[in-house]
Write a structure and sequence with these properties.
The complex is a heterodimer. Chain A has 2 domains: about 130 residues, Sandwich (Immunoglobulin-like), CATH 2.60.40.380; about 350 residues, Alkaline phosphatase D (PhoD) (Purple Acid Phosphatase, chain A, domain 2), CATH 3.60.21.70. Helices cover about 20% and strands about 30% of the residues of chain A. Chain A has 10 helices and 24 strands. Chain A is globular and about 65 Å long. The relative contact order of chain A is 0.12. Chain B has 2 helices and 16 strands. Chain B is about 5% helix and about 45% strand. In chain B, the strands form 3 sheets. In chain B, strands 10, 11, 12, 13, 14, 15 and 16 form a 7-stranded antiparallel sheet that branches. A 5-stranded mixed sheet of chain B has the order 2-9-8-4-6. Chain B has a 4-stranded antiparallel sheet with strand order 1-3-7-5, with no helix packed on it. By secondary structure, chain B is mainly beta. The chains are: A alpha+beta, B mainly beta. At the A-B interface, α1, α4 and α6 of A face β4 and β6 of B. Chain A: InterPro entries: Metallo-depent_PP-like, PhoD-like_MPP, PhoD-like_sf, PhoD_N, Phospholipid_Metab_Enz, TAT_signal.
Chain lengths: ~525, ~290
């Protein structure tokens, strides 16, 4: 951390105050008059979203952007009041909460309302109004009561949505299915500039140039969020999000990235975090303070499941051996190195010690299971996944066993391939105990169409006995969780390089209560 | 022929607050004080109306106050000036020593812009500074002049670390390769690649000077372009006018029968390391 010569407290007063007033529930009547300017342009071009459900609350989100790719989204720089409503029915006959939120250019005219006083495990519909114009209607669902017995939870998880590499057909499929909650596990945007792409407009400057400054990150989110399938998926269910590397820059680690010295990189990270928060349905507790953001958090679904949402970017040690794919060695095994950071590790282990839920889920960025990518006796593993942080992995998986964590399941992304594995206490010893199951979901689009089993995937299956399933197409994972079993349904798209691809189930994998690891693979 | 890329003025710092009392900016005296210092480099800019010849202004904001903050810098050009951005927003930490935060803006003008004086207003927290911009006359494109200089390039792809216009920017020194002065395609080990330059008007051409990467660190025999065709676009169709094979030199002159061309293309077939096509500068001449 750099020394500060001045009264270093938080973000600027103006920005914090604005975000505060935009985020606190203001339970006023919807009749509070709108007296603004007349603007006939649709301000809701980026859709609506909800997120981080609690038994009595959910965050609802939108951003006013009549000209989404223009500076300030085409808004002028005056503050705006936005009305919101939450109802028990789709037609808003039974409105249970409503109010007015204030926003402005400091927050990209985003609105984050933490709607409180809701009933547990209930569907709600929400919408916004500004200048007489109504937003699309979103559907959301609160979490069950803290000690509720939950017969079934349906969830989806997704990651890695490189916009220029294909169409979001997977999201159209996700929106059609009835999920109680959706997890997004990182790489919502890509920061680097690209050269050409699948979609029209792939060669526009707002896609071809890398993002460094705050206005550039904001514009990149706008470009991605204009997609109608992505908007549908947000509007159908609450999302619980975390970020990975490309929301900032490829393979960053804490304050380290080769593109810039730490002091300069912190500015980029602050800009990236600010734009991230503005565009995600997150609470004020997650509002970044400059380059720092409290993103790891715990969300419980009654007695059925507890989700530990991790942040394995912000506190990690720099990648071992200069990153890349390398043989494990003293550096990857160094106990001083960490992928979670000490505070998050303690928070996770303490949380597990107190957990009373049937399923205990890690919702996070990248694979915990070993990924030997080299045929034959030699072992080459990615330095950016948990393979590059073996001591950290041993502390987490060993810690789970010590605390008798029931039904450990890891869901992750990052790899651009589907990989399902048993989590082993010691990946050097195939006979060691299986302590949990890991489902890595493939990318929504990153990598374009792919194929069922590529040579790299075949090698992974040969070299990693703990790996039970692999696929190299695009898609997402839809899960059904009951007290007795967890089923992961790997939904894959035949082609993302064309519109209207076909989505189908490639495999269903089963985990049984009380039996660590993957019990069955149905192909 | 050489044209000034930009009037080189020392990259000095103008602190917005320091200008506030200036009698030349009366409006500024009523502005609130700001804890963001703004500087631009160069302090004045020259622009020429060639499509692939942007001038770059570097913008810097520095937090001189006591609290971290976010700031928005807006740019308002006059007349025909076209900016690659009109907004630069960033978090600005209040740290010791000061942490300047910079971003570039490219400035272009249409070919038919009348030479003269224009300006860009730069504003943060309602404090404004003005950057004078001079639009220079177009360079001569007569016999003996490089017809490709600054003209619109298109490529099959461009690597993210390079700029499309780098091979028509008038800088043919391969030692400047790292400073975005060349073109490098974006598809590793995939050939062919194409690099085209559209001439401002159809012209009779008979000679191409191609400078490929040939620096002390990256000699042409290891990293330069090896095999290529020179093509001319005539009546909307590409025709090959010359071929170069097995090249190991940094600078290759190719002459061919005069042809009335709308555009010139380098069809890159292979490099000496078989990875990328690299052109430091492409020049086209007529009779």
């Amino acid at each position: 951390m750099p020394t500060t010569r001045r009264n270093f407290l938080t973000v600027s007063g103006a920005a914090a105050a604005l975000a505060l007033s935009g985020s606190l529930p203001e339970i006023k009547t919807a009749a509070a008059g709108w007296t603004g300017r007349v603007d006939r342009r649709d301000p809701f071009t980026l859709g609506v979203a909800s997120g981080d459900p609690l038994p009595d609350a959910v965050v609802i989100w939108t951003r006013l952007a009549p000209d989404p790719l223009a500076p300030f989204g085409g808004m002028d720089r005056r503050p705006v009041e936005v009305q919101w409503q939450v109802a028990e029915d789709e037609r808003f006959h039974r409105i249970v909460r409503s109010g007015t939120a204030r926003t402005g250019p400091e927050a990209s005219h985003s609105v984050h309302v933490d709607v409180r006083g809701l009933r547990p495990w209930r569907q709600y519909w929400y919408r916004f109004r500004v200048n007489g114009q109504l937003s699309p209607v979103g559907r959301t669902k609160t979490a069950p009561a803290y000690d509720a017995v939950v017969p079934e939870l349906s969830l989806a998880f997704a990651s890695c949505q490189a916009w220029w590499e294909g169409w979001y057909t997977a999201y159209a499929d996700m929106a059609k299915r009835d999920h109680d909650v959706v997890f997004f596990l990182g790489d919502y945007i890509y920061e680097f500039g690209i050269d050409r792409g699948i979609r029209p407009h792939s060669n526009e400057p707002y896609i071809t140039q890398q993002t460094v400054t705050l206005d550039e990150y904001r514009q990149r989110y706008a470009a991605y969020k204009m997609d109608p399938d992505l908007q549908d998926a947000h509007a159908r269910a609450p999302w619980i999000v975390t970020l990975d590397d490309h929301e900032v820059v490829d393979n960053w680690a804490d304050e380290a990235h080769p593109s810039a010295p730490p002091a300069q990189f912190r500015v980029r990270r602050a800009n990236a975090f600010r734009a991230y928060w503005e565009h995600m349905p997150l609470r004020l507790a997650q509002l970044p303070k400059g380059p720092d953001m409290q993103l790891y958090r715990r969300i419980r679904y009654g007695r059925l499941a507890e989700f530990n949402v991790l942040d394995t970017r912000q506190y990690r040690s720099d990648q071992a051996y200069g990153d890349g794919t390398k043989a494990p060695g003293p550096e990857t095994k160094d106990p001083a190195r960490t992928i979670t950071g000490d505070a998050q590790e303690k928070w996770l282990l303490d949380g597990w010690a107190a957990s009373q839920t049937r399923w205990n889920v890690l919702a996070h960025q990248t694979a915990i299971a070993r990924l030997d990518t080299k045929d034959g006796p030699e072992v080459l593993v990615p330095m950016d996944t948990w393979d590059g942080y073996e001591a950290s992995r041993n502390r987490i998986l060993g810690g789970a066993v010590q605390r008798k964590v029931r039904n450990l399941v890891s869901i992750a992304g990052d790899l651009h391939r589907s990989v399902a594995s048993d989590l082993k206490l010691d990946f050097d010893d195939p006979a060691s105990a299986t302590v949990g199951a890991e489902f890595v979901g493939t990318s929504i689009t990153s990598g374009i169409d792919g194929q069922d089993l590529d040579p790299g995937g075949a090698t992974l299956l040969r070299e990693n006995a703990h790996m039970k399933f692999g696929n190299f197409q695009r898609g997402y994972v839809s899960c059904s969780v009951t007290p007795q079993r967890w089923i992961s349904d790997y939904r894959v798209v035949d082609k993302v390089s064309v519109q209207g691809g076909t989505v189908s189930t490639r495999a269903k994998l089963l985990v049984e209560d009380g039996r660590p690891g993957i019990a069955e693979v149905q192909k | 022929m050489r044209i000034p890329r930009q009037t080189v003025v020392a990259a000095g710092t103008i602190v917005a607050a320091a200008l506030l009392g200036s009698s030349s900016m009366p409006a500024a005296t009523s502005s609130p004080s700001s804890d963001v210092a703004v500087s631009v480099a160069p302090e004045q800019l020259s622009v020429v109306g060639l499509p692939c010849f942007p001038s770059t202004l570097n913008l810097t904001m520095t937090n001189t106050g006591s609290q971290d903050r976010y700031a928005d810098l807006t740019l308002e050009p006059t007349g025909p000036l076209q900016l690659s951005r009109t907004l630069f927003s960033s978090w600005l930490p209040a740290v010791d020593p000061d942490q300047p935060v910079s971003a570039p803006v490219e400035v272009r003008v249409p070919r038919d812009t009348k030479p003269g004086a224009y300006k860009i207003d730069v504003e943060v927290d309602r404090n404004r500074l003005t950057v004078p911009v001079t639009v220079e006359p177009l360079p001569s494109k007569g016999p003996g002049d490089n017809l490709a200089l600054g003209e619109q390039a298109t490529a099959s792809s461009t690597h993210g670390n390079f700029t499309l216009c780098g091979a028509v920017d008038g800088d043919k020194d391969p030692e400047h390769w790292d400073t975005l002065t060349g073109w490098n395609d974006g598809t590793r080990a995939v050939f062919p690649d194409t690099y085209d330059v559209a001439l401002s008007a159809p012209a009779t051409v008979n000679r191409v000077e191609l400078y490929t990467l040939d620096s002390v660190k990256y000699p042409a025999r290891l990293n330069g372009l090896r095999d290529w065709d020179v093509q001319a676009k005539v009546g909307g169709a590409w025709q090959t006018v010359a071929q170069v094979r097995g090249n190991t030199l940094g600078h290759v002159t190719t002459t061919f029968d005069p042809v009335q061309a709308e555009a010139v293309r380098i069809l890159c077939l292979d490099g000496n390391d078989h990875t990328y096509s690299r052109i430091v500068e492409l020049e086209v001449y007529g009779t």
